[in-house]
Specification:
Blueprint lengths: L1 H26 L5 E7 L4 H4 L7 E9 L2 E9 L4 E7 H13 L3 E7 L4 E6 L5 E6 L52 H5 L14 H20 L12 E6 L5 H13 L4 E7 L2 H14 L4 E5 L12 E5 L5 H11 L4 E5 L17 H4 L2 H22 L2 E7 L10 E7 L7 H14 L5 H8 L6
Parallel strand pairs: 8-9, 8-11, 9-10, 11-12
Antiparallel strand pairs: 1-2, 1-5, 2-3, 3-4, 5-6, 6-7, 12-14, 13-14
Helix pairs in contact: 1-3, 5-6, 8-12, 10-11
Bound molecules: S-adenosylmethionine (SAM).
Length: 445
């Protein structure tokens, strides 16, 4: 008896950790599947079926607009499917595992594979590893089919494109947010019945795609993993405009993830600030504020996530600089116009006939500006990706620079050399972000 109690006490934290990772994966829409194997017997409902159970495969599905988990019980000659609302399903799985009904449980997400195993003596252990490629969904890089990835300096493997789960036929990939949430109506995205207004359907897709990218970044960052996933998180959104994305991220973090989140919108235009403050007041939103401010002079107390979507020209550089300086774990920006570098560009000899066309020069200036920003983020200790986060049919401002802070500092000398070579090749004298980082001593000479 005493031995049983000792074993139960030993296993409890491992089971709780696994249950927590499963719950989070589902809540963050990262759950690809859970596979339970090595059935030990003892569950009456299963034993009554009279055949030897090979495995149970659990996947997220949406039934009548409600999230469920679908259980596929695989027997040698038949499969049985059972769907349960998420809370019931998680309770059932926890019950099975606590009762030792399965020897192994494998949790698959786009970014990790978690294994719960019981030894012959019944001792539980949890191991978190990298996913096998087979488990990454084809739509996994759904942030963009054309996502461009780049290896982090010093790491041989490319950082995988941001992946969030769009579970094929069942879960609506545009539904990271619940359209019936009141803020969407207040901001004019939905009607009083919670239906997206036809004129706002592009915005709706953009907002959801943005949350999808953010969810994948959060999952990769220590901010989204134990123990920091239990700690408060502060997000600052610069140039937050009418606040579509600011309110969305607040709602997703607090309402969907149940995180202790504070979200601050910083906006230059006073009329927009007043509008958003009115919505916050009317909906009595906790953990949200909206401030009039200029990103060039703003000093946040502390922040974990820096967002700047479509902040004009060098406002993006100021925002990235502020994120780096504040030690943000995640920096997400979608640049807007690119004015600073264009007048400085020399056309290197072999490129002259191509760059004589103004449109090409503009594209070159954009690519160089954002390419240099990504390299500067690399040099400042971030794994950085540049990709299209939504198709051009929804917005022409569809480029995303996503940076997740590395757990360990790596040498940045090689990246800094690359930056200098590129600048010398194109005759670039000044790039705003580089100047700001240098002034702060945040880049090696
Ligand atoms: C194109 S809007 C984007 C709004 C919002 N982020 C979105 O994606 O829906 C850019 C916003 O940035 C604001 N802005 C421009 N320069 C700024 C600065 N230096 N500091 C703060 N906000 C700025 C503008 O007033 C405008 O509302």
């Amino acid at each position: 008896m005493a031995a049983d109690r000792e074993l139960t006490e030993f296993n409890a934290p491992h089971l709780a950790r696994f249950a927590d990772l499963l719950r989070q994966a589902d809540a963050q829409q990262r759950l690809l599947k859970l596979v339970l194997v090595a059935y030990q017997g003892g569950v009456a409902d299963i034993d009554d079926l009279g055949a030897s159970l090979q495995r149970v495969i659990v996947r997220p599905v949406l039934l009548r607009e409600q999230p469920h988990l679908s259980f596929l019980l695989r027997f040698p000659t038949k499969d049985i499917t059972k769907n349960l609302p998420v809370a019931d399903a998680l309770a059932l799985i926890a019950n099975w595992l606590a009762g030792g009904a399965f020897r192994n449980a494998h949790l698959h997400t786009p970014t990790e594979e978690v294994q719960l195993a019981f030894s012959k003596k019944g001792k539980a252990s949890v191991r978190v590893g990298k996913p096998s490629n087979a488990e990454v969904p084809a739509a996994g890089a759904s942030a963009s089919a054309s996502a461009a990835t780049r290896p982090a300096p010093g790491t041989p493997a490319a950082v995988s494109a941001p992946a969030a789960v769009t579970t094929g036929h069942n879960r609506d990939k545009h539904r990271f947010l619940d359209p019936s949430r009141p803020f969407l109506h207040e901001l004019g995205v939905t009607d009083a019945q919670g239906h997206v207004l036809p004129t706002m359907s592009r915005k709706w897709k953009q907002i959801n795609k943005f949350i999808e990218v953010f969810a994948a970044a959060l999952a990769r960052s220590p901010l989204g993993q134990p123990p920091r996933d239990q700690q408060p998180i502060h997000v600052v959104d610069f140039g937050s405009g009418k606040g579509y994305l600011t309110f969305a991220i607040h709602d997703w973090l607090r309402h969907t993830l149940h995180r202790d989140a504070r979200v601050t919108g910083v906006e230059l235009r006073d009329d927009l600030v007043q509008l958003c403050q009115r919505v916050i007041g009317k909906l009595k939103l906790d953990g949200m504020d909206y401030e009039q401010g200029d990103v060039r002079h703003y000093h946040p107390a502390a922040l974990n996530v820096m967002i700047a979507l479509h902040a004009c020209d060098v406002a993006t550089d100021y925002a990235i600089h502020l994120g780096i300086r504040s030690g943000a774990d995640i920096i997400m920006c979608s640049p807007c116009c690119h004015k600073q570098i264009r007048p400085q560009l020399l056309s290197p000899h072999p490129l002259r006939p191509i760059l004589q066309h103004g449109i090409h020069l503009g594209q070159e200036a954009e690519m160089l500006t954002d390419g240099l920003r990504a390299l500067l983020l690399d040099a400042a200790g971030y794994d950085t990706q540049v990709f299209e986060f939504i198709s051009l049919e929804h917005t022409n401002k569809n480029k995303m620079i996503l940076a997740v802070k590395r757990a360990k500092a790596t040498s940045s000398e090689e990246v800094v050399r690359q930056i200098q070579d590129i600048k010398a090749f194109y005759g670039i004298q000044e790039q705003c972000l580089e100047q700001l980082l240098r002034a702060d001593g945040l880049l090696p000479a």
